[in-house]
From TrEMBL:
Species per Swiss-Prot/TrEMBL record: Microbacterium panaciterrae
Pathway annotation from the record: Purine metabolism; IMP biosynthesis via de novo pathway; 5-amino-1-(5-phospho-D-ribosyl)imidazole from N(2)-formyl-N(1)-(5-phospho-D-ribosyl)glycinamide: step 1/2
Quaternary structure (record): Part of the FGAM synthase complex composed of 1 PurL, 1 PurQ and 2 PurS subunits.
PANTHER family recorded: PHOSPHORIBOSYLFORMYLGLYCINAMIDINE SYNTHASE SUBUNIT PURQ
Cellular compartment(s): Cytoplasm
Gene3D superfamilies, A to Z: 3.40.50.880
Top-rank lineage group of the source organism: Bacteria
HAMAP family cross-referenced by the UniProt entry: PurQ
Protein's name in the database: Phosphoribosylformylglycinamidine synthase subunit PurQ
Keyword Hydrolase among record annotations: yes
CDD domains, A to Z: GATase1_FGAR_AT (cd01740)
SUPFAM superfamilies for this protein: Class I glutamine amidotransferase-like
Physiological role: Part of the phosphoribosylformylglycinamidine synthase complex involved in the purines biosynthetic pathway. Catalyzes the ATP-dependent conversion of formylglycinamide ribonucleotide (FGAR) and glutamine to yield formylglycinamidine ribonucleotide (FGAM) and glutamate. The FGAM synthase complex is composed of three subunits. PurQ produces an ammonia molecule by converting glutamine to glutamate. PurL transfers the ammonia molecule to FGAR to form FGAM in an ATP-dependent manner.
Amino acid sequence: MTVRIGVVTFPGSLDDRDAQRAVRIAGAEPVALWHGAHDLEGVDAVILPGGFSYGDYLRSGAIAALSPIMTEVKDAAAKGMPILGICNGFQMLVEAHLLPGGLIRNDHQHFVRRDQRLTVENADTAWTSVFSRGQEIVIPLKNAEGGYIAADETLDRIEGEGLVAFRYAGVNPNGSLRDIAGLTNPGGNVVGLMPHPEHATEPGFGPDTSAAMRSGVDGLGFFTSAIAAVARIAA
């Protein structure tokens, strides 16, 4: 069985091709999907990639969350399909109310780009199963509106229900409340995060490690986790 993972392109998407490449490196078949379509083309999982959809007008991800294909994404998510939102894709997920809270301008008001340490808080999702809880990974980060916010009662709820998927470690790069870098839904099939795992999947192109420059491939685990999740669903 070849797992087929769709990557949606929106006007202003920048990292859709990178996500497709990451899917291919992980051993699945990437399928290009278009924001204006009402067809997921029979894929087994979906990625909403990073970028600046619709120029980040209104709020980042707000217009994209209303794109025709998001109706299909919401329906698929409700049925348990693995959905990953990366950076702008995470913003789409919160705007579409598939994940709680919101994302605002970084507290220092500047675009940030860094190789970011993350702590895995939930290793029981469709996109994190190859990791272990408490594991530290390094994933590239690049955003201007990555500050995660939510009401205190919402924060308490997601903490209590184990819905924090990742926290920033070492430094909080954008002022996110409680150092939240990524979330999951209660079903564990929908995950969103601000850092970019697709940029840490191939030796020579990832973050620096103690072994060698640009050798970090921690992001590959997201995609191999999804492949394993699809296999479990199909079994």
